Amino acid sequence: MSPEPKLPRRRRGGSESGDRPSTIRDVAAKAGVSVATVSRALAGNYPVSAATRARIMEAVESLHYVVNVHAKALSGRVPGPIALVIRDITGPSLAHVAAGVEQEAAARGRLSLVCATHGDQEREDDLVQMMREQHAAAVVLVGGVPQDDAYHRRMAEYARALDAAGSRLVLVGRPSLPGSLPVTVVEYDNRGGAFQAADHLIAAGHRRVLFLGGVCGLSTGEQRRDGYLHALRAHGVPYAEELDVPGPYTRVSGYQRTREALDAGLDFTAIVAGTDMVALGALAALREAGLDVPRDISLVGFDDVPFAADLTPALTTVRVPYEDLGRTAVRLALEREQRLAEDAHVVLSTQLVIRQSVRVLA
User: Are the CB atoms for 195 and 227 separated by under 8 Å?
Assistant: First the structure.
């Protein structure tokens, strides 16, 4: 069998005379025109004859010349990208925020960049500075945060530095900042959503509701806990400290906390899980203990990620408009000069989605 023919290797951005990247001067020399004529032809902002343009484009192709996009961005001819900075790109809810950002950015002819911090504050600082230097049109930060003075100072520095560079800081799923700062905030109703979840269970006759909340001190978890407590107060249900169990928003944590509650002999007939991933872990622990949902224990999640409707039983949960959060963040950032000042802070609603994981007690 004859050997498979090898394709010629194509240099990316290399000149015909060597391995160095081709320059606009190389293009001009090959096409037999001035550098200014090449620049005008590529920019499309000055009349150039069809024959001359054809020679220039042929030279560009043969030399594999790549336009200096960064230089064009500095000149204002290329719109800046939208940068999304999140803790983890693998989480289902954050992935939907990213999808919304990408869809809206693409619809507006913008490139979107997704960067993960993995919980490293210094990396977040570096990414924001990098996006400022790249002249990003907006930097979108997503996810719950500790609401302390250090966080507020850091966000204020971000907002002012980005604004000075013509960019915009957008906080998604984070509370607004004190004072008057050049920042856009897009939240969703965490408190209202958690209230709906707990209210639904209490209205169904449940009085002992295990709450698998988030990490103490983080804004998202604290807001959802507030909603849970509000529902207890609204129905006159006594607060039981042993049923208020904080922890990470992970499947493993949901399993462990539910397992520990069962092993401790806690009396409860229902669970409000801080996220659908936590609910998935709780469901596994309940089944492992021989308990049925919803016959023995009712279960409500939070997020309405795609798998929630496919569980058995289908999970009652709180729907968060994650893609709308991403789209709204981009829209408000890019249209900020045309919109009223109050549009700099928007709160999107959440919705209880009732399925089959809750039983009405007799």
Answer: yes
Find out whether 174 and 187 touch, Cβ atoms under 8 Å: yes
pLDDT-based confidence at 2, cuts 50/70/90? very low
Backbone angles phi, psi at 79, to 5 degrees: -65, 140
Bridge partners of 351, per DSSP, are 319
Give yes or no for a contact between 138 and 83, defined as CB atoms under 8 angstroms apart: yes
Give the residue with greater pLDDT, 198 vs 111. 198
Q: What are phi and psi of 13, to 5 degrees?
A: 75, 15
Q: Is 4 helix (H, G, I), strand (E, B) or coil?
A: coil
- Region 305-328: mean pLDDT is 94
User: Cα separation of 251 and 277, whole Å?
Assistant: 5
Residues 299, 269: Cα–Cα separation, whole Å: 9
Taking only the tens place, the pLDDT of each residue in 64-87 is 877 655 555 444 555 688 999 988
Of 222, 215, 214, 286, nearest to 256 by C-alpha is 286
Whats the size of the chain, residue-wise? Answer: 362
- What residues does 169 pair with on adjacent strands? 139, 183
SS3 153: helix
Instruction: Give which of 200, 91, 183, 189 is closest to 138, Cα–Cα.
Output: 183
**Measuring CA to CA, which residue among 85, 172, 66 is closest to residue 136?**
85
209, two tokens: 């509701």
| Per-residue CA distances from 98 to 105, 123, 167, 304 (Å) | 10, 19, 19, 16
Q: Tokens 């807001």 map to which residue?
A: 223
Partners of 299 in beta bridges: 271
Task: Return d(Cα 230, Cα 210) in angstroms, integer.
Answer: 15
What is the C-alpha to C-alpha distance for residues 168 and 352, in angstroms, rounded to an integer?
Answer: 33
pLDDT surpasses 50 at 214: yes
Average pLDDT over residues 249-277: 97
Q: What's at 2, amino acid-wise? A: S
- Contact assessment for residue 316 and residue 358, using Cβ atoms and an 8 Å cutoff: yes
Token pair, residue 88, equals 């983890």
CA angle 151, 154, 157 (to 5 degrees): 150
Q: Residue 5: its pLDDT value, please?
A: 40
